Amino acid sequence: MIRVLVADDENLVRKGIVNDTDWQLIGCEVIAEAANGEEGLEKALELKPDLIVSDIRMPKLDGLKMVEQVLEELPKIKVIFLTAYGDFAYAQQAIRLGACDYILKPFEDGELEAAIQRLIQQNILSQGSVRAEDLIPLKAPGEIENKYIRNAVEYIGQHYMEPGISIGQIADALALSEGYLSRLFKSETEYSINSYITRYRIRTAAKLLDDVQNKVYEVAELVGYQDITYFSTTFKKLTGFAPSQYQKT
Q1: Residues 6+ apart with CB under 8 A from 35
Q2: By CB neighbour count within 10 A (0-12 exposed, 13-18 middle, 19+ buried), where does 134 fall?
Q3: How many structural domains compose the chain?
Q4: Which residue, 86, 198, 213, 233, has fewest beta-carbon neighbours within 10 Å?
Q5: What is the mean pLDDT of residues 90-106?
Q6: Do residues 120 and 165 both lie within one domain?
Q7: Mind listing the pLDDT tens digit for each residue in 154-164?
Q8: Does 85 score more than 70 pLDDT?
Q9: 9: domain CATH number?
Q10: According to the model, what pLDDT value does residue 126 have?
Q11: Range(s) of the domain holding residue 240
Q12: Same domain, 175 and 63
């Protein structure tokens, strides 16, 4: 899991980022919040997150100065800046500091997740690998020791295209309680069952989109999505691109 620090002085905005972003789906966890730059600096140096998501204008110490000091001590930390100010000078300064992305608030659903995925992809692309399996990693049945979870993963592989697939359906098929299956599944795979299903569907969709003859709406239906807009938003969260953009690249 990618460990994330979120820094923003606006409490409602910060809580919205923490609570409304699907961190579990994209393989992240928020390890700390900060309400100003000084608090962000202190927590970053103490906890050493992998990624900082920070507002630029904050009291006591602004986001730019905070990140500058963090990177002096921890140069490998990745940074995504958020700001309500569309001043290109801020973007230029953020880029000089080593920011990986720059998002204007208010941002659309899926935009932050997509920015994080682009960071992950940059690392993958630098290694010369562009397979869907690398962009959206998941444990295969052969990598799972527990037989119940191995069977659950196999079941998902056989039924992921069914729009109504659910935890209850899988639990019934394995003769297990939903609660027990959910706890065991997450401990074995790092993801909830719903997140695993979503990642499996989108990874399969990415493979299908490698063939430019496949239409986006056809692929959405093939992997179990009836709402093309929801499919596109989810795809962007996990790959960093809308399906049509992904197919072009």
Answers
A1: 7, 8, 9, 11, 14
A2: middle
A3: 2
A4: 213
A5: 76
A6: no
A7: 999 999 999 98
A8: no
A9: 3.40.50.2300
A10: 53
A11: 132-248
A12: no
Instruction: Say which amino acid occupies 201.
Output: R
Kindly list the strands in the beta sheet with 101-104, ordered across the sheet, starting from the edge strand earlier in the chain: 28-34, 2-7, 51-55, 78-83, 101-104
Q: Are residues 34 and 61 in the same domain?
A: yes
Q: What is the pLDDT of residues 50-80, one digit of tens each?
A: 999 999 888 999 888 999 899 999 988 999 9
**Structure confidence at residue 87 (pLDDT):** 61
Whole-model pTM: value is 0.76
